[in-house]
């Protein structure tokens, strides 16, 4: 039996080879980048910093996690907490911390039945209240992994740097959902950090992000995206980050950890918001981002059809195994760098399922439309 004797299957074999090459490019060029990139040593210069945290009804998280932000080993910084219309005990907890931490600043936004707003408004209030040029952002449900978090995040700022992109992971919990959330979070980070290293910065995460205050006002804040419920982090980076103006920081001491979604419904809601903002990315970024999962689905589909027909099966299996070797090597090494344990047994199944999960969530977000003026 010659390969050319079955045109359809031969075409699938060619497709398998092409998608293998595409996948290999993403893994060896973008996803390998964090493994090969040497983070520069700190210049020793300690810029004055403002840490900004927006919180609505976060009393438990403020009590548990805010001290780790307030007790950083850094000589000159303030923490600006925007208490946005909270009706729990946040006001009282922040009052306690104001007595204990002189570098804490609190701005309270009171409820107004005639005015509704999203998180970007609270973020703007925090930026406006900040005293320093370098702004570092995290969330109320986040905890820095060390007291060197701030020092590491700020060390990336040279004279030409506008953004520093950090890693914001999630706390390990029991259950398959937590494993998937941490896997997906890590893969997104590998992608946006790797692309930034390669000169194509397209997003950051508000759980661990830094940029210049002057840039924010120069670019007129969140601009045309002000009314969108999400995008205070990724859309601001996507609109304003330029090649050569972005640094990355992913040392373990610079990580933050956040409280993960406790249910599939909560995960769906959070993921839907993020996927909605992707509609507003630059065209080149959208093309690069969609090409990887599309080639992945085609790779698995052609592999299954070819193997089921035993068509050139030694070649088909060889290509599949070679991709698996590349994939597992890159992901396992990155999981150590990003301190994400226990993911190894699930890499293949999550890799297969994630494009379909994201496609279903994205389709749901398009049916519901884009939320506006909602605090998230």
Characterise this structure.
With 376 residues, this protein is of the alpha/beta class. It has two domains: 3-34 and 284-368, no CATH class; 39-261, Spore Coat Polysaccharide Biosynthesis Protein SpsA, Chain A, CATH 3.90.550.10. The chain is built from 13 helices and ten strands. The strands form two sheets. A seven-stranded mixed sheet has the order 3-2-1-4-8-6-9, sandwiched between helices. Strands 5-10-7 form a three-stranded mixed sheet. Helix 1 (7-31) crosses helix 11, helix 3 (59-70) packs parallel to helix 4 and helix 10 (264-277) crosses helix 13 (347-368). The chain is elongated and about 80 Å long.
Write a compact overview of the structure shown.
This protein has 376 residues and is of the alpha/beta class.
Secondary-structure topology with pairs:
Layout: H1 7-31, H2 33-36, E1 49-55, H3 59-70, E2 77-84, H4 90-100, E3 104-109, H5 119-129, E4 134-137, E5 142-144, H6 149-155, E6 163-166, E7 168-170, H7 176-197, E8 209-212, H8 213-218, H9 234-240, E9 246-249, E10 256-258, H10 264-277, H11 283-308, H12 313-337, H13 347-368
Parallel strand pairs: 1-2, 1-4, 2-3, 6-9, 7-10
Antiparallel strand pairs: 4-8, 5-10, 6-8
CATH architecture of the largest domain: Alpha-Beta Complex
| Rg estimate, integer Å | 22 Å
CATH topology of the largest domain: the name is: Spore Coat Polysaccharide Biosynthesis Protein SpsA, Chain A
End-to-end separation in angstroms reads 60 Å
Shape: elongated
Helix content: 40-55%
Poorly predicted runs: none
Order of helices and strands: HHEHEHEHEEHEEHEHHEEHHHH
Mean model confidence by pLDDT: 92
Q: For the record, what is the CATH homologous superfamily label of the largest domain? A: Spore Coat Polysaccharide Biosynthesis Protein SpsA, Chain A
The biggest beta sheet is recorded as: 7 strands, mixed
| Helix/sheet category | alpha/beta
The total count of strands amounts to 10
Give the amount of beta strand, in percent: 5-15%
């Amino acid at each position: 039996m010659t390969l050319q004797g079955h045109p359809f299957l031969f075409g699938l074999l060619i497709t398998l080879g092409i998608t293998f090459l595409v996948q290999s490019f993403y893994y060896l060029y973008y996803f390998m980048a964090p493994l090969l990139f040497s983070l520069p040593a700190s210049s020793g210069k300690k810029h004055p910093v403002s840490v900004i945290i927006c919180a609505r009804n976060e009393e438990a998280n403020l009590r548990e996690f805010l001290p780790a932000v307030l007790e950083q080993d850094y000589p000159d910084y303030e923490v600006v907490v925007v208490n946005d219309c909270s009706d729990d005990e946040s006001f009282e907890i922040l009052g306690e911390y104001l007595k204990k931490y002189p570098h804490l600043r609190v701005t309270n936004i009171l409820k107004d039945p005639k005015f509704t707003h999203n998180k970007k408004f609270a973020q703007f209030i925090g930026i406006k209240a900040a005293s320093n040029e370098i702004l570092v952002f995290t969330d109320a449900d986040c905890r820095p992994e060390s007291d060197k978090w701030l020092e590491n995040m700020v060390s990336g700022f040279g004279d030409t740097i506008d953004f520093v992109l950090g890693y914001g992971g999630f706390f390990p919990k029991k259950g398959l959902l937590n494993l998937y959330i941490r896997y997906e979070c890590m893969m997104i980070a590998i992608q946006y950090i790797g692309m930034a290293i390669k000169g194509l910065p397209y997003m950051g995460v508000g759980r661990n992000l830094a940029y210049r205050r002057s840039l924010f006002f120069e670019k007129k804040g969140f601009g045309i995206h002000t009314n969108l419920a999400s995008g205070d982090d990724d859309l601001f980076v996507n609109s304003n980050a330029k090649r050569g103006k972005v640094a990355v920081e992913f040392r373990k001491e610079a990580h933050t950890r956040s409280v993960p979604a406790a249910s599939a419904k909560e995960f769906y809601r959070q993921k839907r918001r993020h996927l909605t903002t992707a509609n507003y990315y630059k065209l080149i970024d959208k093309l690069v981002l969609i090409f990887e999962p599309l080639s992945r689905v085609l790779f698995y589909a052609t592999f299954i059809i070819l193997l089921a027909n035993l068509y050139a099966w030694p070649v088909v299996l060889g290509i599949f195994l070679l991709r698996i070797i590349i994939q597992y090597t890159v992901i396992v090494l990155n999981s150590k760098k990003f301190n994400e344990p226990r993911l190894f047994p699930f890499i293949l199944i999550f890799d297969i399922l994630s494009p379909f999960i994201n496609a279903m969530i994205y389709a749901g977000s398009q049916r519901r439309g884009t939320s506006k003026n909602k605090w998230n």
